[in-house]
Amino acid sequence: MGRDLMKGDMPALVLAVLAEGPSHGYAIARNIEAQSRQAFQMKEGTLYPTLRNLEQDGLLTADWEVQPSGPARKVYRITDKGLGELTKRRAEWEEYAQTMQVILGGKPHAQPA
Known about the structure:
A 3-stranded antiparallel sheet has the order 1-3-2. It contains 4 helices and 3 strands. Helices cover 53% and strands 12% of the residues. By secondary structure, it is an alpha+beta fold.
């Protein structure tokens, strides 16, 4: 795919994954990698600061959950505020993608008057 995952893209991807249901960090990373067909490789140095910032902004919550075997895991859940932010980011992405398609897609577009 050639396009690097940009810092500004990470919050939207994390919110989209958490909109599907609660998850822990490792599973969020693997989910993004799988859905992108491995085009995006998730690094802990990017993911966990993003999770922390989203939590501080009230877009998600996190709770430690005890596991039947193994250590407790921090599980993240999207908040109503986070769902609103995801809706906003999806609309912005649609507008951006449509504009890029007009320019890069080779389709004629209206010239300014």
